[in-house]
Write a structure and sequence with these properties.
Elements (H helix, E strand, L loop, with lengths): L5 E3 H8 L3 H9 L7 E2 L5 E4 H10 L6
Antiparallel strand pairs: 1-3, 2-3
Length: 62
């Protein structure tokens, strides 16, 4: 089954095992994957942005 290209925020939170509040704290610090706001106001995360973000968690920040 193919993964969707645009994930809803609850799907992202489930996948990364994080609460909405913790996610928004990370986002405020610029440490969360980029959110896309759709014209209807709903938020999405692109699958490739989430995968890149997850892959970079292991990389040391220099």
């Amino acid at each position: 089954m193919a993964r969707p290209q645009m994930l809803k925020l609850p799907e992202v939170l489930t996948e990364i095992g994080m609460s909405r509040a913790a996610f928004y704290r990370m986002r405020a610090r610029g440490q969360a994957p980029r959110l896309v706001k759709l014209p209807n106001g709903h938020l999405r995360v692109r699958r490739n942005d989430l995968d890149d973000w997850l892959n970079n968690l292991d990389s040391p920040a220099y």
